[in-house]
Specification:
mainly alpha; 8 helices
Length: 213
Amino acid sequence: MKKTTVISIILIIISFLASAYFYYQIPGDIIASHWNAAGEVNGYMSKFIGLFLFPLIILCIYLLFLLIPKIDPLKENIKKFRKYYDSFILIIMLFMTYVFGFTLAFNLGYKFNMTYAVIPAIGILFIYIGYILKFLKRNWFIGIRTPWTISSEITWGKTHNLGSVLFKISGISVLLGIFFEKYLLWFILIPTISSVIILFIYSYVVYKNIKKK
């Protein structure tokens, strides 16, 4: 069994065990489950649902990732970047477990700004996605999927090379936003939305230029 698989399964088990262990240590019948950009609680759930829904979501995401290589019409391409695919699964599992850990800590009475706890992980996630994008081969589920990248290997390659750069920039921007509290949301939204728009338009332009030749 692959190391990434073993670690992912361990993280899932830990998340369920942590929910069970801390269930009676968290006071009350509801827990904080959502925070706004300022790190203030603005959403609650019943304690049972709040504690066990997150691990269940982590499990479902993991199972979905296992299913994708089996059902993708371009599954042979996934085999070509499988080690990056597996590492991406692990990064997502680590990210989800990290967020869940801080959710538990907050509801156990540890007070901190949730936004500032989670933002570094988001920035690192973006940077890592930027790193692996250039290694992805054309498929239907993972990567920058527009009608034009799916239809053309060349468009896929060029779009993902640009996407690699833009996601790394977005990740760095997210990390820098930590130092500008009043503008943190803009440090996240502007590069992220801009990257999506740029990549969508770029893939169309590249595809059209290829068709003209």
